[in-house]
Each structure stands twice: as structure tokens, then as C-alpha cells.
């Protein structure tokens, strides 16, 4: 609950993590489809931009335009090259396995012809223009074809995940095809066709997931399915194909369905109204000001969505949903031949007739014979509404806008669509065709000679808004897409990737200098199938006060690279890194998930790139790498970077490039120029020029921010009027007055342009950085081995005693015990005390992860300020990361070494441990390089004063930013109420930071990094013998001159929970702001994850290895014995807590969000520890100020209700299935394996043993409802046991909460008042004379209309009286249950069958609606 970045996510009971984070149901499910992994694409071209804040600046959302990494020549699964700042490393590790690029074969119009050389790589390797002109070899496994009616299909076998496949139906029509009066109709048609399909409904419960999304250029319906229907046992592929066929070609446009989905679409439009969405819209509006991409956003215009009748909606479907405009993709582990798959496709889709012009009526058909090549239709712009243009067949036209095609089309008045709005491509015989240019727009490119009257320098467009806090400037340059089909294309893309990596490396180095003026500087060059162009983008993010210095830094580095190019060592190391990455990917070809492969096949086919197999792609990369020269790379840099390096000098640069002496100094496409410049700036700043707090995200569903229309809400649960009112309030924010103490941030376009074009910059060449061959001299390590004589020792026993026992050291079986047969885990212990756990996995072929863990962490800090006082571990860890220098090597040299050897690392501290994670390549000496770095970090770290000061400054900035975040500030307040002045579990304050010294934090960290306090965990695809040899040489020689730290010192002061008075236990505070928002926390003590429930005493070692839990038994004596054995297992507490948390989360989400509509996000979390004998729970619920107290009360009521409304077998089974499925899925992730391995040998976690991993599944499967209630009994959810904090923001505080009205309800019912719940299960009830109508009236009086409607659902129900006094929270729970449509008796656990039926119905709605939120969240996104 710390208001800072959390530790590693826990997917199962054994992960080394302080938090149990069960899934949040359907909340926050990210959008599926082409944009789902766009973040990985955007990052694929090199290191992320530097900056102190994790997550990056807002401009990265624009990268979610689903651009493939053209500049990076990426393949499926390919990773970025370059080291990143530690704050970004965690996200990078998760993105590593994502698909960043597939090199594709051309579209059907230009399919591979006979005679294409398969030896292109070999030819290119020999050099010469002719060799580079040869076509690359396409992937023979990729099958493309076309049915007689024009429908195209793409098949690709893919074995990951096994026994499953992806089927995506792409309709080549999106928002860009809408006419002026149709904005949003493509999205509405998607909703109606998808959710109106009965055959799609038949997929529910079969193990398949179905969804859909709409984007600028297409609409996609997709299904992820098993090979076999889990209900019927029949093959799923025919069923899936029939469902997709019905969705696209046999929809029922029922009026009721249209109205229902109209409401859902309108609600989505309101919920997307975030400041992030507004920024995206502004960027795209100016980027594509000359065409419809700048004004046809997929979500559409709400006033138009409200107005369309049945005919208008169906007309769009009739126009664009025809076979020739559709492509079917099937990728996966199929159990039949390609011919059999094609036969199934033909059976499902071949029956639909090809679209024809005559389908649009006699008038349209009559237009065909007399079609005019130069224009179509009538009207001022040459295009009548719905006019049809006659075009040559696609095979004749080709895929590019050029030559004769340009003369045969009409450009509409605003230079938008190629054929005009809503215009089709039609063959000479009247057959409708897929448009040859997708999306059908014309771009103004930033290359070539200036057109007559064209301004060389675009104006600066400014978007100013009160909710913005940072200055963000983006310089765009649009270029034509060049299909990657030949070896020369591959070579060019290779060079672009080198350039981008070099630029970001230089920016990183500039950032680590003292007092950096910028937050982030990022350069991206990539293709976009979504937009039909290549986009170069320089994004600059800064505090408003430093905007000019940041622009100067960015322009200086752009000019330096453009003028002087790369150094020889930069070209060498980045080329080496790219090739090592390519080799590793060739090994990982079979581990790329089908969904990722399919997404990039779709994207790159749209771009005309050639699909290559990973092995063939690597061979081609090797061939072109040998032909690249420094002069060629620098010529490409000179050309591509001028769009930002020479703003204001466009014509001058063109004239320079035309000089005869410039031959060879420029590459295609010649000097580039900016096509748009957009500044997004805050409306107000403080008097000192700093950002001011004017609220957080505007919209209620931040996870939905983005420009693609996706996600299907349940219209029946939508309060559209309320959402529209909220949207109107958001719109009014743009005109808000200045916050108190703030001044208007006035920047003119000329000021920004002058900063970009400043001639007063002294640019000098960059000195070359020596690339170390080794971080540790082999001779030095050999001498250390001879001197230290490192060896393995027995796992158990005191180290000094073991070293003094020659017989024990000679016992090979004790020193090198065999691999555990149940888990595959091997354990070792070094003679210097370092413990090792490793496991071989195939999750990432020829690569892996290793983790060094040191016990201590922030909990070991003193509670008082001082040179090495509170905050020392946090600041010391960041100081090492910021410095980055080790031994004799500078940070620049260490980063260069890591880049060249594909090493990516992050060092961090949490409450209990220091953690250093390293990703390594297991080929070409990569594992040894990783151990060389580990050795230097442990044995010879350099503590630099500048890095120490930067670290403190970063924490100061972070503390200052807490007050600008409603959630973080509320969290900080409630943690202060719980822990008092104990700052170890919060970020250090400026006062404590000031007391720290470099020597003080150095001493604290060196104590924790003592060899006897270290544990190494390794998971990946490596050679075990090599690993053990490297462990002995590089870790076994690490030595400390100081004695080992005591276990008590590493444990730190005891954690004491405060017992404050009520006014400090229940906090309400307000943030004056323009944005009306609210967040509430409920928190309190929680049981420990290890040891018996209720005990907080130190744990003693287990007497022996634990036994697997017995199977459930029916015999009472056997059942009792099985329960006792299960509860004696070390995993019992953790498993019970996780299952209970899963059940509570499900109830919270279903009740507080779905049924009552009081929140858009609510979650229950249990924070537990491995070493510390403490823990706490928390509930976070976000809402609006007028609802937050009811949301808080409802959440608290749900917690207490667990003790009253029994957990059902169905709930337990669902929780088990969720956690086990997550566990099985996460086992495919090496990072998850590290969590399982961590602490297996820690003396402070004596109950975590290898046998726990063996028994994890069995412990989940044998858990009972009684186990969950055993865990529940150790929570205190009463008023005296919980802490609450309600934070609100707005112009004025809301009315104070009136807790008395709950008691008034009770008084009205039975004359008594009760407060709070109890820790153990309690009974609730009302007098026997109390009828349901009285409940409804009482709650109506207390809570108003919303509760009245909810409680009316209980009318007529038979209330069973129960013993005990009435509790207001418990009675509120009854109202909540009524709001779900269940009888009160069912809410009291008297009607389990009825409750299960309701839950099943809600689950079905979730699959229909919220599965419509683009599929389930992947493991790393839950």
C-alpha cells in the first residue's frame, strides 16, 4: 500500500512478493487487437528515453497507433537493443517477449514470383548493388489464398500456446471510411454485428474468448479458442468459422439490439473522455491535418450516434461488409492440414456472393458504364454523397498511390480520402473490390522538393489545458512507407535501428549528469499500417520551468548526430547487439504466442513487408550487417534527422544536399522536414514556474484511454444520463479559473519555434567511448580463484563449522545435491555464504533471468533520521543505479558493455530486500558477461556524489508529487494513521533525506550486500555446468572484510500498529481542484503469510520436509486428519489468504461496481511479507465526491458480509480456477520462476522450501470453505479494527459524511443502533415484523433514489429473522444484495441455488460484454 511503485507482482502463493494481488475481474482490461502490444513496438527501436518517472511521458500513448517498427527491422519476439534506466527496466522485461516486428511478404497483388532467389542472403554477403537488390526469402509456412467470392485468407502454423488457435476476421473498413454524417457508425456496426450473433453466443463456455474492435483502417472480430470444445468434445475450428461468418455476413439488425448498442457506444464515448485521450486527439489532428485521419476518430461524434436510424446503420454494413473487403487470419497449433483448413474456410464463407455495384440499387449500377476517370459524382468537391468511383482491378493497380492510379481518382475538397468520403473501388465488371490504398488518404510528406507555396517550416500548434502538468513538444515528420521486400530494404532498416539506439543512449548519458533539465527526450521512426505512412517523431517532455533548456538539449543531440554521425565504436557495439538479439530470436521462434504473430502478420501485410521465418531473417541480417559502413549509416542519419535538427532551414538544407560535393553524404529519402509541431502545455503554473496540481485523470475508466473504439459494455448497467453529465463537467474544465497561487503559462508559437531553430548552439563531435571486452580481467579473476579457492559446501549447517570439516567438504553428494525430481530445482551454497537456486526452463530459448537478493530492505532502516537513518536503503539503492560505474569503468562504458552483450538490469529495494535483476543471453558468452557485471557490482561498486544528489532529488520530487495524486496522498495519510511516524514503509521525507550522507547510505548497503546475506536465483535456458562454473569463479570470489550482519539488525525495529483516536483513524480530506474526483481506502492489520494464523512470533525451522496434503475424505475421522495435515502445511496460510482475497474481490466488483454503480474500480489487497511478521489489508475504491461515502460504506459492508453470507462452493471453485490458471500461465514466464525460487534458502524464511513448490497445486485443490473462514476470522473489519481515508477533489469540499443516517435506518427498523461488524462471522437481521417493503422504504429515505430502486427489488421477498441486534453495515449489505436482484434470503445464504443462477447470468453477461473489452488481461497485466 506504499504510495510508490509496488514490488514484483504475485501470481501465486510462493512468489517472493509483499503483495497478494488477485485479479480485479473485468476492471481495467486493456484493449485487444493491433494496438495491444504497440508499446513494445514503440520501444523496439532502442532504449527508452531517460527520465526519473517510471511509465514515461504521455506521448507514448500516441505510439499505440499500432505502428510496426519499420526502422528496427523487427521480427516476432524481437526485443529492443540498449540498456534502460532502472525505473523502466521492469516494464521492459515484461515487454521483452512481446512481438515487435515481423518481416512480411508483399500483399496478394505482388506475391512472390517464381525465380525469386532463395540465396539472397549469401549474395548480399558478397556485396554489390545487384545482391542487395535481390528479394528476401519469404516464410514458406505462411499460406495466403483467395476464395472465388474474393475473400482472402492467411494461415500460419504456430505452436505457442499448444492446442489453441487464433481466428481473426479483418473487415477493411473503419472510421476513416465514414462520411461526414456517419462519424462513429463503423463502431456501432461492430457492436451490433458482434453482440447480435447467436453463433457467437454459442462459443461461451467452450473455452473460447471472442471480441472485436474498430480502428481507423479496419474492424476486427477475433476469437481465441482451444482445438476442442470442452463441452461437446467436437472440433472448435468449424464452430468458430461459422460464428465469424454470421457476424460479418449474416447479422440481424434488430431495432432493440441497435438501441442497446447505441447506448453502449455513447457510454464508451463518455468514459474515454480523459486528458490522455484529448492529447492523442490533438496530436493526430495536427499530424494528419490534411486528411481524414485527423478528424475521423473511431469513437465518432455522439450527436450523430444518437441520430441514425436502422437504415443508416445497415447501409454502412451493406457498403463495406462484402467478401472481397475481408481477410481471415488463422494462426495457431492446428490439428489438420492447410488444405483441410481451406476447405473449412470455403464451407463457412464461400456461400456468400461477391459484392457488386448492383447491390446498391439501379442508380449506382447505371453509373458504371459512364464513369469518369477524372472525377465522380457531383457537388462542390467533386464527390456526391455516397458516390462510387470506378477503379481498375487491384492486381493492376498495385498497392501504392502512384502513376496512372493518381489520375483516375478524385481528391475531395479537404484533400482527404483518395476516392472521397464513402467511395468504393469497383472493377470494370461492377464487382466491388478492396480499396488498393488502405487507409484511403493522401499524406503530405516531409521529403523531396518544396511544392510551390508550401511553407518549409510548419507552424507550432499549441494545446493548452488545466489538467496538463508537463510541457510536451512533439515534432513530426511523415514519410512514405517503403515495403521491406529486398535485401537493401533490410540493410536500410538495420541502419535506422542503429541510429535510434545510439541517439537514446546519448540521451541517457546526458540525463545522468547532475541536475538534468528534462523528464524525457524520445526519438521514434516507425511505419504505421493504421495510418498508411511512416512517422518520425521527436518528443520532448519537461517541467514547465525547464522547457527551454529541454528543447535545447534535444536539438543539440539531434544536431550532433545529424552533423557528425556515429562514432566507430557506436556502430560496432549496436551492430553486435542487434545481431546477438537476432540470433537469440532465431532460437526462440517456437515460443512466440500466436496472438502476437497474428497481430504483426496483419500489420505488416498492410505495409507490404515480406514475412520471413526467424532463421531466414537472421541469415539475411548477418548478410547485410557485413555490408554496412560508417559512412552509409551517417548518411542515413543526416537525412532522417533533419526534420528536427534543422527546423527553419528547410530550403537551405535542400540546396546544400543538391551540391555536387555532397554526393554520398545523404541517403534516401534525402533531407527531411517537419510536417507538424505540436505543443501540449499546462494552462497554469506556480509563480516559480513549476507544475501545479489541478487534478488527475478526468475519465472514470483511465484504462480505456486510446483512439481505437473497443470494448463492449453491458448497456443494461449503464447510466447514460449520468455519464453525459460528467462529460459536460469535464468539458467545462477547459475554461476553469487559475488555481490558488497559480499564474497562466503563456507560451507563444514563435517562442517555441525560436527554441527549436536556435542557431546559438555549440555542437561538437562526441568523443568515442571505449567498449570493454571484459568488465573483469580474466587474469584478475583467475588470481582471485587461486587465492580464495571457492567451492560448494553443504546446504545445511553453520558456514564456519562446514568450512572446518574437511570430510564434509569432500562429500560431493552433500556439496552438490542432485536436482529435485519434483520441481526441477537445483540448489547450491558457496564457501563465502552465497546461496544459489536455479531451474532450467524453455520459456525463452537461449536466454534467462537471474536475481540477486539481499535480506534487509527498508524495514531494516532505523526509524530515526541520520547519516544512515531512515531512507538510507532506498536512496543508497538508487544511488548505485544512478551512478552505474563499477571498478575502473565509467557508466558509459558499463552501459556500452551491457548493450553489446544483451544485458538488461534493474536494481531496486523493497520493504524486505535489495534486489538486482539481470536478463541475459545464453549465447556468445552472454552468461559470462552477466556474471562479470554481477561480480563488479558486488565487489567494486563506485559511489558517486553526483548520483547520490540526483537520487535524493528524485525522492524529493516524488514526495512533492504525492500531493498531486489523490490516490497516493490518501494512501500516505492512511499509512501514517496505521504506522504513525514509522517512515520505513513510505517514501522518505525531505527532512530525512537531508540528514542522509553518502558514507552513511554506503555503509548500510554494504552491510546488506555481504556475501553471507546473498541469494542467487536463476531461471532460463542455460547450460547448468557453465552456470555452476561461473558461479564459482565470479561469485565465489566475492569477499567482504567486515563481519556478517546480525539477523536481528537485518530484521529492523518491530512494526507497531497505532491505536489512534477515531478522528485520526477515520480521515476525510479535500484537495482543492478543478476535477471532481474521490478515492477511499479501507485498511487494517492482516495475518502473516507464513506460520500459523494469529501468530506474529519469529518462525522456527521446520522439523522436516512437509508432506503433500491428503486428498479430501468423506469419513469424518479421515476428513479431520486431512484438515489437520493441510493446515500444518507451510503453504496453508498463503493459499487460504489468496483464495479469500479472490472471493472478496469478486464480491466487491459485482456489488459495488456492477450492481450499485458506485465506482468504476474497487480492489481488495492483502500486503504480506516473507521475513517480517506483519501484514495489512487494504481496499481502494474510486468514485465521485457525492458517491464516495456510499461506495466506502458498500465496500466495508461487502467485507463484513463475508461473515454472514456464506462463501459458496461455486465461489471457491471459481477462485481456485482463477489462481490455478494464472499459476499455470505464469509458469511460462521466467520472471515468475524467479519469484518461486527466491528465499528457498533464506534463513529468515524457514518455511519456504522446495517441497512447497511441489505441493502448490495440491494445496489449492484441497482448500475448503472452512479454510477461507479460518483466514477471515483473523481479520477485524469492525469500526474499531479498520482505518479509513476518504480523499476528494473539486472546487469545494462535498458535504461531510453522515454516518448517523445508517444508525437512523436501524433505529427506524428496530429502535436500536449497532455499530460495526465483528471479526468472526456474525449474524444480522431485523425484527420478525419487518417486511421487505419496510426495508425498501427505510433505505429509500436514507439513501435516496438509487437505493430506492435497488431495495425495491427485494419487495415480496421472504425475510428470515436472525438472532442478534441489527447492524447498519449489515443491513446495507442486504440492500446491496437486493440491488443484484437476489432475494434477501439468498443474500443471507438461504438460497444458494438462486444465487448461483444469478452469478452464472452475470458471468455470461461478463463474457458477452466485458469479454468485449478486448479479451482477458495477459498475466503481466492483471
Structure description:
By secondary structure, the chain is α+β, with helices and mostly antiparallel strands. The strands form six sheets. A seven-stranded mixed β-sheet has the order 3-4-8-5-7-6-18, with helices on both faces. Strand 10 and strand 11 form a beta hairpin. Helix 8 runs parallel beside helix 24 (720-732). The longest helix is centred in the middle third of the chain and has 25 residues, at 487-511. It is globular and about 90 Å long. Mean pLDDT is 77; it is low at 2-12, 16-121, 368-421, 695-707, 1304-1371 and 1373-1422.
> Helicity range of the residues?
25-40%
In round numbers, the mean pLDDT is 77
Strand order of the largest sheet: 3-4-8-5-7-6-18
Number of continuous helical runs = 52
The separation of the N and C termini measures: 17 Å
Which ranges are low-confidence, i.e. pLDDT below 50, for 5 or more consecutive residues? 2-12, 16-121, 368-421, 695-707, 1304-1371, 1373-1422
Strand percentage, roughly?
Answer: 5-15%
Overall shape: it is globular
Largest sheet: 7 strands, mixed
Structural class: alpha+beta
Report the count of strand segments. 30
Rg, Å, rounded: 32 Å
Amino acid at each position: 500500500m506504499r504510495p510508490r511503485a509496488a514490488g514484483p507482482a504475485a501470481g501465486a502463493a510462493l512468489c517472493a512478493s509483499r503483495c497478494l494481488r488477485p485479479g480485479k475481474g473485468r476492471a481495467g482490461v486493456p484493449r485487444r487487437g493491433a494496438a495491444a502490444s504497440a508499446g513494445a513496438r514503440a520501444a523496439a527501436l532502442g532504449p527508452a528515453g531517460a527520465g526519473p518517472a517510471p511509465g514515461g511521458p504521455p506521448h507514448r500513448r500516441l505510439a499505440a497507433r499500432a505502428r510496426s517498427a519499420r526502422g528496427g527491422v523487427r521480427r516476432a519476439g524481437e526485443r529492443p537493443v540498449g540498456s534502460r534506466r532502472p525505473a523502466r527496466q521492469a516494464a521492459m522485461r515484461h515487454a521483452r517477449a512481446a512481438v515487435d516486428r515481423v518481416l512480411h511478404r508483399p500483399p496478394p497483388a505482388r506475391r512472390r514470383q517464381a525465380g525469386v532467389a532463395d540465396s539472397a542472403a549469401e549474395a548480399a554477403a558478397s556485396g554489390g548493388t545487384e545482391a542487395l537488390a535481390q528479394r528476401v526469402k519469404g516464410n514458406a509456412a505462411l499460406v495466403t489464398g483467395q476464395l472465388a467470392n474474393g475473400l482472402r485468407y492467411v494461415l500460419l502454423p504456430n505452436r505457442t500456446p499448444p492446442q489453441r488457435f487464433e481466428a481473426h476476421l479483418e473487415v477493411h473498413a473503419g472510421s476513416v471510411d465514414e462520411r461526414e454524417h456517419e462519424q462513429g457508425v463503423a463502431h456501432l456496426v461492430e457492436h451490433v454485428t458482434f453482440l447480435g450473433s447467436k453463433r457467437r453466443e454459442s462459443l461461451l463456455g467452450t473455452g473460447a474468448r471472442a471480441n472485436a474492435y474498430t480502428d481507423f483502417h479496419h474492424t476486427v472480430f477475433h476469437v481465441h479458442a482451444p482445438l476442442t470444445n470442452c463441452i461437446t468434445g467436437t472440433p472448435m475450428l468449424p464452430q468458430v468459422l461459422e460464428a465469424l461468418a454470421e457476424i460479418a455476413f449474416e447479422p440481424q439488425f434488430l431495432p432493440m439490439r441497435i438501441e442497446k448498442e447505441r447506448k453502449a457506444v455513447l457510454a464508451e464515448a463518455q468514459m474515454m473522455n480523459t486528458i490522455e485521450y484529448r492529447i492523442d486527439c490533438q496530436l493526430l489532428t495536427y499530424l494528419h491535418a490534411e486528411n481524414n485521419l485527423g478528424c475521423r476518430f473511431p469513437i465518432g461524434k455522439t450527436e450523430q450516434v444518437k441520430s441514425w436510424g436502422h437504415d443508416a446503420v445497415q447501409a454502412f454494413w451493406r457498403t463495406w461488409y462484402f467478401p472481397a473487403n475481408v481477410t481471415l487470419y488463422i494462426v495457431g497449433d492446428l490439428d489438420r492440414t492447410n488444405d483441410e483448413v481451406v476447405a473449412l474456410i470455403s464451407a463457412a464463407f464461400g456461400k456468400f456472393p461477391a459484392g457488386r455495384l448492383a447491390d446498391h440499387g439501379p442508380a449506382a449500377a447505371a453509373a458504371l458504364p459512364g464513369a469518369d476517370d477524372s472525377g465522380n459524382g457531383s457537388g462542390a468537391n467533386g464527390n456526391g454523397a455516397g458516390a462510387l468511383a470506378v477503379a481498375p482491378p487491384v492486381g493492376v493497380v498495385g498497392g501504392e498511390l502512384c502513376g496512372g492510379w493518381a489520375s483516375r481518382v478524385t481528391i475531395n475538397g479537404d484533400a482527404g480520402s483518395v476516392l472521397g468520403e464513402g467511395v468504393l473501388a469497383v472493377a470494370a465488371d461492377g464487382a466491388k473490390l478492396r480499396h488498393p490504398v488502405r487507409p484511403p488518404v493522401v499524406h503530405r510528406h516531409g521529403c523531396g522538393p518544396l511544392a510551390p507555396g508550401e511553407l518549409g517550416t510548419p507552424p507550432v500548434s499549441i494545446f493548452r489545458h488545466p489538467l496538463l502538468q508537463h510541457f510536451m513538444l512533439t515534432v513530426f515528420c511523415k514519410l512514405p512507407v517503403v515495403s521491406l521486400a529486398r535485401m537493401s530494404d533490410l540493410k536500410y532498416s538495420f541502419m535506422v535501428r542503429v541510429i535510434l539506439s545510439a541517439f537514446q543512449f546519448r540521451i541517457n548519458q546526458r540525463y545522468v549528469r547532475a541536475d538534468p533539465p528534462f523528464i524525457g527526450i524520445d526519438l521514434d521512426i516507425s511505419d504505421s499500417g493504421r495510418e498508411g505512412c511512416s512517422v518520425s517523431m521527436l518528443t520532448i517532455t519537461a517541467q514547465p520551468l525547464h522547457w527551454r533548456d529541454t528543447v535545447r538539449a534535444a536539438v543539440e543531440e539531434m544536431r550532433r548526430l545529424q552533423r557528425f554521425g556515429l562514432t566507430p565504436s557506436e556502430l560496432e557495439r549496436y551492430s553486435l547487439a542487434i545481431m546477438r538479439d537476432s540470433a537469440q530470436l532465431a532460437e526462440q521462434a517456437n515460443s512466440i504466442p500466436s496472438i502476437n504473430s497474428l497481430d504483426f502478420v496483419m500489420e505488416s501485410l498492410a505495409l507490404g513487408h515480406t514475412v520471413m521465418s526467424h532463421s531466414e531473417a537472421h541469415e539475411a541480417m548477418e548478410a547485410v550487417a557485413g555490408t554496412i559502413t560508417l559512412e552509409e549509416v551517417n548518411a542515413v542519419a543526416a537525412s532522417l534527422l533533419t526534420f528536427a535538427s534543422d527546423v527553419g532551414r528547410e530550403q537551405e538544407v535542400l540546396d546544400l544536399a543538391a551540391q555536387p560535393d555532397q554526393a554520398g553524404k545523404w541517403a534516401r529519402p534525402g533531407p527531411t522536414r517537419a510536417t507538424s509541431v505540436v505543443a501540449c502545455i499546462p494552462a497554469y503554473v506556480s509563480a516559480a514556474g513549476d507544475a501545479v496540481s489541478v487534478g488527475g485523470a478526468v475519465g472514470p475508466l483511465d484504462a480505456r484511454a486510446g483512439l481505437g473504439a473497443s470494448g463492449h459494455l453491458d448497456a443494461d448497467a449503464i447510466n447514460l444520463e449520468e455519464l453525459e453529465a460528467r462529460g459536460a463537467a469535464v468539458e467545462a474544465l477547459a475554461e476553469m479559473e487559475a488555481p490558488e497561487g497559480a499564474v497562466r503559462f503563456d507560451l507563444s508559437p514563435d517562442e517555441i519555434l525560436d527554441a527549436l531553430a536556435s542557431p546559438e548552439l555549440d555542437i561538437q563531435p562526441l568523443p568515442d567511448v571505449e567498449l570493454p571486452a571484459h568488465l573483469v580481467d580474466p587474469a584478475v579473476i583467475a588470481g582471485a580463484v587461486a587465492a580464495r579457492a571457492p567451492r560448494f559446501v553443504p546446504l545445511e549447517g553453520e558456514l564456519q563449522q562446514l568450512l572446518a570439516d574437511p570430510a564434509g567438504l569432500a562429500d560431493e553428494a552433500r556439496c552438490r545435491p542432485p536436482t529435485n525430481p519434483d520441481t526441477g530445482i537445483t540448489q547450491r551454497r558457496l564457501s563465502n555464504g552465497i546461496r544459489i537456486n536455479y531451474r532450467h526452463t524453455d520459456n525463452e530459448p537461449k536466454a534467462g533471468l537471474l536475481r540477486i537478493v539481499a535480506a534487509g530492505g527498508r524495514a531494516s532502516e532505523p526509524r530515526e533520521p541520520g547519516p544512515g537513518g531512515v531512507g538510507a536503503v532506498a536512496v543508497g539503492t538508487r544511488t548505485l543505479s544512478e551512478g552505474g560505474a563499477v571498478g575502473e569503468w565509467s557508466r558509459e562504458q558499463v552501459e556500452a558493455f551491457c548493450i553489446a552483450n544483451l544485458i538488461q538490469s534493474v536494481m531496486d529495494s523493497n520493504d524486505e530486500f535489495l534486489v538486482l535483476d539481470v536478463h541475459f543471453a545464453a549465447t556468445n558468452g552472454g552468461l559470462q558477461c552477466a556474471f562479470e557485471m554481477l561480480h563488479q557490482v558486488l565487489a567494486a561498486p563506485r559511489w558517486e556524489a553526483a548520483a547520490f544528489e540526483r537520487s535524493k532529488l528524485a525522492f524529493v520530487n516524488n514526495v512533492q508529487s504525492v500531493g498531486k495524486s489523490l490516490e497516493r496522498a490518501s494512501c500516505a495519510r492512511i499509512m501514517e494513521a496505521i504506522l504513525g511516524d514509522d517512515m520505513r514503509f513510505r517514501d522518505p521525507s525531505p527532512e530525512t533525506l537531508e540528514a542522509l550522507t553518502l558514507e552513511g547510505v554506503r555503509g548500510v548497503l554494504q552491510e546488506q550486500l555481504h556475501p553471507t546475506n546473498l541469494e542467487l536465483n536463476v531461471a532460463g535456458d542455460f547450460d547448468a555446468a557453465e552456470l555452476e562454473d561461473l558461479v564459482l569463479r565470479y561469485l565465489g570470489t566475492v569477499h567482504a572484510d567486515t563481519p556478517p550482519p546480525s539477523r536481528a539488525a537485518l530484521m529492523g525495529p518491530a512494526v507497531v500498529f497505532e491505536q489512534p483516536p477515531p478522528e485520526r483513524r477515520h480521515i476525510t480530506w479535500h484537495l482543492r481542484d478543478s476535477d471532481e474526483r474521490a478515492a477511499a481506502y479501507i485498511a487494517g492489520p492482516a495475518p502473516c503469510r507464513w506460520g500459523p494464523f494469529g501468530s506474529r512470533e519469529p518462525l522456527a525451522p521446520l522439523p522436516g520436509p512437509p508432506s503433500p496434503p491428503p486428498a479430501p475424505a468423506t469419513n469424518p475421522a479421515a476428513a479431520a486428519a486431512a484438515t489437520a495435515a493441510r493446515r500444518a502445511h507451510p503453504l496453508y496460510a498463503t493459499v487460504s489468504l489468496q483464495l479469500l482475497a479472490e472471493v472478496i474481490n469478486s464480491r466487491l466488483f459485482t456489488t459495488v461496481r456492477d450492481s450499485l454503480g458506485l465506482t468504476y474500480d474497487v480492489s481488495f489487497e492483502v500486503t504480506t511479507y516473507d521475513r517480517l511478521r506483519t501484514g495489512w489489508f487494504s481496499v481502494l475504491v474510486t468514485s465521485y465526491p457525492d458517491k464516495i461515502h456510499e461506495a466506502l460504506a458498500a465496500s466495508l459492508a461487502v467485507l463484513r458480509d463475508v461473515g454472514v453470507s456464506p462463501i459458496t462452493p461455486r465461489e471457491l471453485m471459481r477462485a481456485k480456477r482463477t489462481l490455478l490458471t494464472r499459476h499455470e500461465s505464469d509458469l511460462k514466464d521466467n520472471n515468475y520462476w524467479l519469484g518461486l525460487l527466491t528465499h528457498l534458502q533464506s534463513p529468515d524464511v524457514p518455511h519456504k522450501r522446495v517441497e512447497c513448490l511441489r505441493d502448490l497445486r495440491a494445496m489449492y485443490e484441497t482448500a475448503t470453505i472452512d479454510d477461507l473462514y479460518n483466514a477471515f476470522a483473523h481479520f477485524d473489519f469492525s469500526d474499531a479494527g479498520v482505518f479509513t481515508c476518504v480523499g476528494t477533489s473539486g472546487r469545494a469540499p462535498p458535504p461531510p459524511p453522515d454516518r448517523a443516517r445508517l444508525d437512523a435506518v436501524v433505529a427506524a427498523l428496530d429502535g436500536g443502533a449497532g455499530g460495526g461488524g465483528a471479526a468472526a462471522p456474525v449474524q444480522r437481521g431485523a425484527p420478525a415484523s419487518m417486511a421487505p417493503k419496510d426495508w425498501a422504504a427505510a433505505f429509500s429515505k436514507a439513501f435516496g433514489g438509487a437505493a430506492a430502486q435497488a431495495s425495491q427489488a427485494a419487495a415480496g421477498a421472504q425475510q428470515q429473522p436472525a438472532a442478534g441486534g441489527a447492524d447498519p453495515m449489515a443491513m446495507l449489505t442486504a440492500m446491496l444484495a437486493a440491488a443484484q436482484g437476489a432475494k434477501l434470503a439468498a443474500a443471507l445464504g438461504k438460497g444458494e441455488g438462486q444465487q448461483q443462477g444469478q452469478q452464472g447470468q452475470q458471468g455470461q453477461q461478463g463474457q458477452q460484454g466485458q469479454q468485449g473489452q478486448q479479451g482477458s488481461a495477459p498475466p503481466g497485466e492483471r
